[in-house]
Design goal:
- This protein is α/β, with parallel strands linked by helices and 267 residues long.
- It has a single domain, classed as UDP-N-acetylmuramoyl-L-alanine:D-glutamate ligase.
- The protein has 8 helices and 9 strands.
- The protein has a 9-stranded mixed β-sheet, sandwiched between helices.
- β8 (182-188) and β9 (192-198) form a beta hairpin.
- α1 crosses α7 (208-221), α2 runs parallel beside α3 (83-93) and α5 crosses α6.
- The chain starts with a strand and ends in a 25-residue tail after the last helix.
Length: 267
Amino acid sequence: MTSIALTIAGSDSGGGAGIQADLKTFSALGCYGASVLTAVTAQNTQAVLAVAALAPDLVRMQLEAVCDDLPVRAVKIGMLGGPDIIRTVAEVLRNRDLPVVLDPVMVAKSGDRLLAADAIAALRAELLPLATVLTPNLPEAAELLQAAPATDLWQREQQGQALLGLGPQWVLMKGGHADGAICEDLLLGPARVVLTAPRHPTRNTHGTGCTLSAAIAAGLAQGLAVKPAVQRAHAYLQGAISAADRLRIGRGHGPVHHFHALWRPEA
């Protein structure tokens, strides 16, 4: 049977993050991708110029249409925008027995805010308890906990444990916003795993969070357990980042190379 993963997220007109990054990631990893659009953005590698959220009823109709027909095996949730959409998505998913990878998207790489401040409480209450894997970066973890960002691995672990107390089965504390030559991601839950990689000297990291969470969801859809799904996703993302400079897309924070294993850009 074809493995199907579903992304619930916003559109990135520049193609590097959001729905576009998720579908590229699913495809690169051999998984069929379906999508539920929550918002349309006008953005490129330099800025988010406009955001228009879709009506919650339309989000619901997309979600039910996909799940009523396609045998979805895992869900990735990204940009949701506001509390009404958060509650709508949570209401539908509570009736579906599906693994959920929740990427609590709050701010774009350009620094533009993508989640309204009044939506954080709804995200915490409605979706964290449904998450199989929560994948916050350090600023997102701090916002969810109403705390200062962690500054070392010990603080990262304490915040990850606090997030586990809010309901997700696993928390992947991403270390991309930390300092140092080595990037450390910390997976917490039934097991504790530290995933390390050299920090690549590139500005082309637009969509890394979307790509990582989508890669985890693809693994879950293909029947992997959480730990190997996260490990494979981590390795895939490192390859995509290391090949990012070959693409030369835009004048700001360019995307990673999702299909780095399949084709190289022309010189």
